[in-house]
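Reviewer comment 2.1 asked that we show a complete input and output for one of the modelled complexes. We chose the cytidine-5'-monophosphate case, as it is the one discussed in the main text.
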Amino acid sequence: MVLLAMTLHNKRILLLISGGIAAFKALELIRLIKKSGGYVTPVMTKSAKQFVTPLSVSALSENKVYDELFNLTDEAEMGHISLSRENDLILVMPATANILAKLAHGIADDLATTLLLATDSPIMVAPAMNVRMWEASATQKNMKLLRDNDVQFIGPVKGDMACGEFGFGRLSEPEVILTVLEDFFSPVTKTLSGKHVLITAGPTYEAIDPVRFIGNLSSGKQGYALADAARRAGAKVTLITGPSNEVLPYGVKLKQVRTAQQMMSAVQQSLPADIAVFAAAVSDWKIANYSDVKIKKQQHPDKNSTDEKTLTFVENPDILKTIASLTKNRPSLVVGFAAETDDILENARAKIIRKNCDILVVNDVSPATGIMGGDYNKVSIMNKHNQQIVELPKASKAQIARNIIDYIGKINE
Ligand code: C5P
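Response of the prediction step:
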């Protein structure tokens, strides 16, 4: 899973699900909002329940589904007025032509439309409908009316429809809707707008034989979080990653590799880039005597004697150093990472020179810190040009990524 930035931390979203075939996608959106730290209160229209069951919505949101306008218990508990106010945002997803029309004209004939009329929270709608319904002049007029009343539209987009037609009216993907929500709650200055940022992440695996390899404990979390943060800052991002279980951040171009050599080639093929961030834990060595058949355990005649094997290593290319030393096509800013377990700053000072990079993000990965593979990180940013070291407080890898991208954005100004 991508280490989500928890950008929606404690944000309360009232999710109104209206009755379209795309209603099932609300389940995925609920999952994404929750992963980002948000809290979902689901409301379903009568027809939405024809497309997706309240049980699934309730299970995923870990909340009760509200669907009755005249429910005495709810009226006693909180009432539809407070339900419409006790949230930071109302999102209608999917929004049918019908609910848009009611919202535009102040019709309140069920719980969802009553909440929309009673609320003082911001409203977003993610329409989904047949292309002709979307293009119908009534819907277009309603859309203009709603926009003039500060209702924010997410999509619809152009694409294949469930009805077999093609055109505008398709629901924006849940990942896209999530990023709109995240941008709404924590707007990011687009400091890297128009820049191509190349990021390496994760470990590399160096094969011993067809089934065995030498790897390391890197999860890829920090690099993936950097890719997400750079994309949010407006960059076009290429993420070159070794084996990782993280989920691809939205809007990022992914290149998957296994070995250091493959990572090197993928980086070279992805140039030119304005900024390169080498967050991968690349294996310094690969196996010299790779066996293309599985190495067998030898049966030793003497039972007391063990079967010893020797692996020989040869050096891998140093991707960071190679790219930072290019005379042609060198990214104007090259950022390296230094994972150290001892003499941290001293080693880092030598490394920033040796690797020829502009910035070095230094972290202490001694086992006691739990940083390697964990969710938190503690780093200092060393700048070769002004000799300054900025120490960042311990934080989630997502937060650290945002801080590093902010730092890069400022240099870029
Ligand atoms: O020398 P060391 O492995 O400590 O350097 C770490 C930095 O160099 C990281 O930015 C890492 O991504 C990069 N590196 C590389 N290629 C290698 C080894 C390290 O790009 N073969």
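The chain has a mean pLDDT of 91. We note this here for comparison with the apo prediction described in Section 3.2.
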